[in-house]
Every structure is written in structure tokens, then in C-alpha cells.
């Protein structure tokens, strides 16, 4: 019971929200209403005009051709009028509907991009894509189909019934007996049609999700020879979708044909009843003609209105989904007292004070951590997988808020710095730098046209990316494909380093930026790093110790805590985890590796075919990192 109340309440909120977007288009909707009235009147007057021609002229023996010509002329004018106003009505309505949807889509995208990272942890990106694309499009069908049908078909019904009463009250009352029968058919079909519709939509989303998943994992599918299995799974889903689609189509056809049948039965009924009335001289022949025409037209709007039920249902679901996003506020928000910081005055001192943090699952990943970084210092961060290195960085960027303690820059808690200012202070380079489909110039200056071309080129020269760019077909104007897929990992990194030079952040963070690079690219990046880290506080997370060996200080993390701290030399002398890592990187653990290889061979013997494929796959998947090969 409580659920129903919530559902109704959220429907109300969603409809209210939609109406606020529709309000600026009130005049257009009034114009649509006017066009509908004119178009319906023009359409429905046509049979009445024929009735006038039959009863007032032909049946009375009026031989004047000019009167009939005038009637035919008016008939033609009415048709043209109906055509023109239907066209205008559709145009106005589409214009208003599409404008509303475009405004909602724009607002939705803006709202989503303002959400905190915890939101993206919870909500899969696939469903967000659906909300921005197809849910907003479904909203348009609310205007272009549901609203139009309710107005046009509803008014048509009212006009037809009024005209029928005007022509003959008794015959009209007989015809209205049909209404309960129509309602019965419509209701019994409606719930079944809704079910078939929902099943089809679910099967379609399963199919689309499967294709999307396959496309993004194509490499793995091919490496593991999974094409046949994937094809089989696709066939299953495709077949299920085909069957549900056919069932939906069959139900629709059956519903429409039932309505047609009912229409024909009513015509037969009116012909018999009205024919007797004409023979008994109770009604003129023209009235019977007009009646038969109207009773035919009577069914079409009812059919059309009942068909809109499904559209209304899906539009309501989409509306609810969109408004539930609008109602979600970002968890990380600017504090009330947040004040602008003069970026040029920021020195880059960072303090993590007794920081405790857990993601939404509540499991602590950082435990009372203290870390104090001097302005301009370069800190290397190493540690076990899942130790909390990236989480630490996320807290500095304020992608999440700490649960206890504080993170501050130059003594100001990051919660008191407006987010847009904070993000301007920090430059983040990740393992997979994000490149847009656009030119090199735009990728470096992130489409900020106030940054000159010369500045971009200078930045590329500084990090050593210019030789790479000059080799490209159109130099700096070369348009990169989606995510820069035409470039190697090292080349993408160099471009992202040039961004840092251009945007001049006070704090630089490298999160596994060299993990995917071969030793040559790593050298290039090392050189670029030396340039970009100059005068900046720099935090470098790396599994490869060569990247951080020259750092002013290295911290070693394990299970959310700093377990060792010092320079490379100091940590080696300490003989702890860092020293162990270092020995690993120097290839002193060959014995251990041999053991692993023996285990793999045993595994091969157990399951010859798949194990071979897997071993090949793992090697292939692991080799880009280069970690395995450097250890040998
Ligand atoms: N978005 C998230 N939601 C929930 N838990 C998360 C999330 N991101 C990371 N974690 C968990 O937090 C812990 C620390 O993860 P984090 O990514 O900070 O480790 P890391 O030291 O950077 O690891 P790696 O070296 O493997 O990148 C891990 O146990 C991880 O599973």
C-alpha cells in the first residue's frame, strides 16, 4: 500500500516537473488546440455537407447544377482546410515537444555531470546513457502521441456524438449502446498488450546490453576464441526478442481488427435500423448517409486513444526515471562558507590529517592516515594492490568526502574550496588518459579557445610530444578518433602531459601513468615528468619503482595505512616491504617465478585445450603492461 502511495507521489512530482518545462510553450499549445478544432470541424463537416446535398437538393428534385457546384467547392475547401490545419497542428506540437525534450536532455546531462563519484559507483553508465537518450525521446512521444490523441481524438468523439444527436436522437442512443462493448474489449486487451509490450522492451534491452558488452570486450572474446559461444548466446537472446516481438505484433493486429469488425457490425446495425427508418419516412436518406459515415469515424479515435495507454505507461516510467535523477543531489557539495582561492597564491602544501574513509559499502579503506607534503615536494606512493593509493588521491581531488579527519591544501580544508577552483589547482594523469574525438590542439587545451595554438605547441615541445605530432598526417590539426584509439599508450600519455603544462595546476598527480608503457616510452614520460613536475607538488603512484626512485620521499601503503616512509635509499636500508618490492623489480625472485611456471604447466596437463587458450590469453592480456617480461 505504501508503495502505491510513493509511486503516485513520484508520478505527481514527475508530471509537475514536466509541466514546468512545458509552461514556456503555452502559446504553442494554444495554437495546437486551435488548429485541432479547425481541422476536426473541417473533417466532420464534410459528411454533413453531403447530407445537405442529398436531402436539401437531390431528394427535393433541385436541378440547379450551380448549387451542387458550390457544395462541391465548399467540400474541397474543407478538405484543404483540414489538411493545412492538421499539418500546422503536427508541426507546432513536434516543435514544442522536441524543444521541451531538448531542454530536459540538456539539464539532465548537466545534472549527471555534477554528480559525485559515489553516484557513478552505484549507477551503471549503460542506464545513464538510456536515460539521456531513449527516456528523453519517450517523453516526446507523450506530447506527439498521447497529448495529441487525447485532444484530437477526444474532441473528435465529442463532435461526432454532438452531430449524431443533431441528426437523430433515437438512432444515436441506439448507437451509444455499443460503448460498453467497446470499453470491455479495450480493457481486456489493454492489460495483455501492456504485458507483451513490457516483455518485448525487456528482451530488447537484454539484446542491446549483450551487444554493447561484446563490443567492449571484443579483444578478450577473440583472444579466448569465444566467438561461437557468444554467437550462441546472441542467437538465444535474438530468438527470444523475435518471439516476444511477434507476440506483441499479433496482439496489436488482433486488437485493431477487433475494432474494425466492431465498426463494420455497427455500420450493418445502423444500415438496418436507419434503413427501416428511411423506408418508414422517419428520417431522410441524407441523414442515414451522414450517420453511417460518422459511425465509421467513431471507432478510429477510440482505438487510437486506447492505443496510447502503452505510450503513456512508458512515458510515465521514463518521466519517473528522469525525475528521480533530478532529485538526486551530489553527495559532495561546496560548503556554505566555501571561498574562492587565488590560484596564483597557492603554494601546494598538502595535509592529510587523521583521515578515515570508506566507500558506500562502509568497509574502511583508509585508516587514520597522516601525510604531510611540502609545497613543491615530489612524493612517490607505492603499496600492495588495493592498499588505498588511488582512494587517497580521490580524497585530495574531493571525488569523495572523508568520514573523519581532513584533507587540506595550504591549510584550507578542501571542503572549503569551491570544487571548480579545487579542480583547477590539481592536474591528474591516469593510467588511461582520456582523449576526446577532436584535434590534437583541442585535446591539449580541452576545447578552451582562450588558450592559444602557440601555447599548446610550446607545451608539446616541452614534454617531447612535438616529434610525435609532426609525424601525424595533419600535425596539430590531426583529428583523433574516439579516446585517441589511433595512438599508443605512451603517445596518449605525452598528450595528457602537455595538458598539464598548458593548464599549470599547482599540484600534479600521476596515478599509474607509466603502468602501460614500454621502457622506451617510460623514458620519454620520465623526461616529460621532470619538466612538468618542476615547481609543482607532485604525487606519483607507481608499481614500477623506476618511476619514483628519484622522488623526494616515498611512502609505502598497505591496507589503508602508511607502513614505511623515506627516500629510496632510506627505505632500502630499512629492509622492509619496499626493499622486497625493489628486489622483485631487480629480478631476484626467479625461483618464485619458476614455481609459478611449474604450476601453470601442471594446469596445462589437466585441461589441455582451454588451459592453452587461457595461458595464451593471459600472456596476451598481460604483455602490454610489460611487467611480466621485465621480470624475466
Ligand atoms: N568505487 C569504489 N567503491 C567501493 N570500493 C572501492 C572503490 N574503489 C576502490 N574500492 C576498494 O577500496 C580499496 C582501495 O582501493 P584503491 O583503488 O584505492 O587501491 P590501490 O592501492 O589504488 O590499488 P591498485 O594498486 O590495485 O590500483 C580496495 O579494496 C578496493 O576494492
TrEMBL record:
The keyword rRNA processing does not apply. It is found in: Cell membrane. CDD domains: ABC_6TM_TmrA_like (cd18544), ABCC_Glucan_exporter_like (cd03254). It comes from the Bacteria. Gene3D superfamilies: ABC transporter type 1, transmembrane domain (1.20.1560.10), P-loop containing nucleotide triphosphate hydrolases (3.40.50.300). It holds the Pfam family ABC_membrane. Residues 30-314 form the ABC transmembrane type-1 domain. The keyword Nucleotide-binding applies. GO terms for molecular function: ABC-type oligopeptide transporter activity; ATP binding; ATP hydrolysis activity. Keywords: ATP-binding, Cell membrane, Membrane, Nucleotide-binding, Transmembrane, Transmembrane helix, Transport. PROSITE patterns: ABC_TM1F, ABC_TRANSPORTER_1, ABC_TRANSPORTER_2. The chain crosses the membrane at residues 29-48, 68-88, 146-165, 171-189, 278-295. Residues 350-584 form the ABC transporter domain. GO terms for cellular component: plasma membrane. Residues 593-608 have a biased composition (Acidic residues). Residues 609-623 have a biased composition (Low complexity). It is a multi-pass membrane protein. Residues 585-632 are annotated as: Disordered. PANTHER family: ATP-BINDING CASSETTE SUB-FAMILY B MEMBER 10, MITOCHONDRIAL, ATP-DEPENDENT PERMEASE MDL1, MITOCHONDRIAL. This is ATP-binding cassette subfamily B protein. It comes from Paenibacillus taihuensis. The lineage of its organism: Bacteria, Bacillati, Bacillota, Bacilli, Bacillales.
Amino acid at each position: 500500500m505504501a508503495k502505491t502511495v510513493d509511486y503516485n507521489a513520484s508520478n505527481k512530482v514527475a508530471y509537475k516537473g514536466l509541466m514546468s518545462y512545458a509552461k514556456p510553450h503555452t502559446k504553442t499549445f494554444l495554437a495546437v488546440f486551435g488548429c485541432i478544432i479547425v481541422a476536426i470541424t473541417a473533417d466532420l463537416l464534410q459528411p454533413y455537407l453531403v447530407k445537405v446535398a442529398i436531402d436539401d437538393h437531390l431528394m427535393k428534385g433541385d436541378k440547379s447544377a450551380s448549387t451542387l457546384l458550390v457544395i462541391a467547392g465548399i467540400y474541397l475547401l474543407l478538405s484543404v482546410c483540414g489538411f493545412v490545419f492538421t499539418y500546422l497542428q503536427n508541426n507546432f506540437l513536434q516543435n514544442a515537444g522536441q524543444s521541451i525534450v531538448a531542454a530536459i536532455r540538456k539539464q539532465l546531462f548537466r545534472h549527471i555531470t555534477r554528480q559525485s563519484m559515489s553516484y557513478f559507483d552505484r549507477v551503471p553508465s549503460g542506464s545513464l546513457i538510456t536515460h539521456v537518450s531513449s527516456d528523453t525521446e519517450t517523453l516526446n512521444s507523450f506530447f506527439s502521441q498521447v497529448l495529441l490523441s487525447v485532444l484530437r481524438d477526444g474532441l473528435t468523439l465529442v463532435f461526432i456524438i454532438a452531430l449524431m444527436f443533431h441528426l437523430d436522437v433515437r438512432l444515436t442512443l441506439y448507437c451509444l449502446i455499443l460503448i460498453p462493448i467497446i470499453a470491455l474489449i479495450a480493457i481486456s486487451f489493454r492489460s495483455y498488450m501492456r504485458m507483451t509490450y513490457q516483455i518485448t522492451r525487456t528482451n530488447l534491452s537484454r539484446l542491446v546490453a549483450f551487444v554493447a558488452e561484446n563490443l567492449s570486450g571484443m579483444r578478450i572474446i577473440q583472444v579466448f576464441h569465444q566467438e561461437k559461444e557468444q554467437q550462441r548466446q546472441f542467437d538465444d537472446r535474438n530468438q527470444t526478442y523475435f518471439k516476444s516481438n511477434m507476440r506483441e505484433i499479433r496482439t496489436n493486429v488482433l486488437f485493431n481488427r477487433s475494432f474494425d469488425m466492431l465498426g463494420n457490425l455497427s455500420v450493418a446495425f445502423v444500415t438496418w435500423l436507419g434503413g427501416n427508418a428511411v423506408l418508414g419516412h422517419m428520417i431522410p436518406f441524407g441523414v442515414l448517409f451522414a450517420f453511417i459515415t460518422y459511425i465509421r469515424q467513431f471507432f478510429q479515435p477510440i482505438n487510437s486513444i486506447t492505443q496510447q495507454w502503452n505510450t503513456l505507461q512508458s512515458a510515465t516510467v521514463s518521466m519517473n526515471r528522469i525525475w528521480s535523477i533530478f532529485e538526486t543531489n551530489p553527495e559532495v557539495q561546496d560548503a556554505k562558507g566555501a571561498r574562492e582561492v587565488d590560484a596564483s597564491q597557492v603554494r601546494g602544501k598538502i595535509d592529510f590529517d587523521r583521515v578515515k574513509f570508506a566507500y558506500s559499502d562502509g568497509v574502511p579503506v583508509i585508516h587514520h592516515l597522516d601525510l604531510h607534503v611540502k609545497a613543491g615536494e615530489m612524493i612517490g606512493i607505492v603499496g600492495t594492490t588495493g592498499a588505498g593509493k588511488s582512494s587517497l588521491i580521490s580524497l585530495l581531488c574531493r571525488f569523495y568526502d572523508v568520514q573523519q579527519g581532513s584533507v587540506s591544501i595550504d591549510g584550507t580544508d578542501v571542503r572549503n574550496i569551491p570544487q571548480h577552483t579545487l579542480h583547477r589547482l590539481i592536474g591528474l594523469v591516469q593510467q588511461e588518459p582520456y582523449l576526446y574525438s577532436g584535434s590534437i590542439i583541442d585535446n591539449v587545451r580541452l576545447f578552451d579557445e582562450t588558450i592559444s595554438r602557440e601555447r599548446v605547441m610550446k607545451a608539446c615541445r616541452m614534454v617531447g610530444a612535438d616529434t610525435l605530432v609532426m609525424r601525424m598526417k595533419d600535425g596539430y590539426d590531426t583529428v583523433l578518433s574516439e579516446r585517441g584509439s589511433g595512438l599508443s599508450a605512451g603517445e596518449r600519455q605525452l598528450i595528457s602531459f602537455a595538458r598539464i603544462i598548458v593548464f599549470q595546476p599547482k599540484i600534479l598527480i600521476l596515478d599509474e601513468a607509466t603502468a602501460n608503457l614500454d621502457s622506451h616510452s617510460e623514458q620519454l614520460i620520465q623526461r616529460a615528468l621532470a619538466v612538468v613536475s618542476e615547481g609543482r607538488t607532485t604525487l606519483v603512484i607507481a608499481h614500477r619503482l623506476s618511476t619514483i626512485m628519484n622522488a623526494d620521499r616515498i611512502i609505502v601503503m598497505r591496507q589503508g595505512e602508511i607502513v614505511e616512509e623515506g627516500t629510496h635509499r632510506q627505505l632500502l636500508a630499512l629492509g622492509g616491504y619496499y626493499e622486497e618490492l625493489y628486489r622483485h623489480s631487480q629480478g631476484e625472485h626467479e625461483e618464485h617465478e619458476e614455481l609459478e611456471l611449474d604450476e601453470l604447466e601442471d594446469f596445462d596437463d589437466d585441461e589441455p585445450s582451454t588451459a592453452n587458450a587461457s595461458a595464451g590469453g593471459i600472456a596476451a592480456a598481460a604483455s602490454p603492461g610489460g611487467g611480466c617480461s621485465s621480470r624475466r
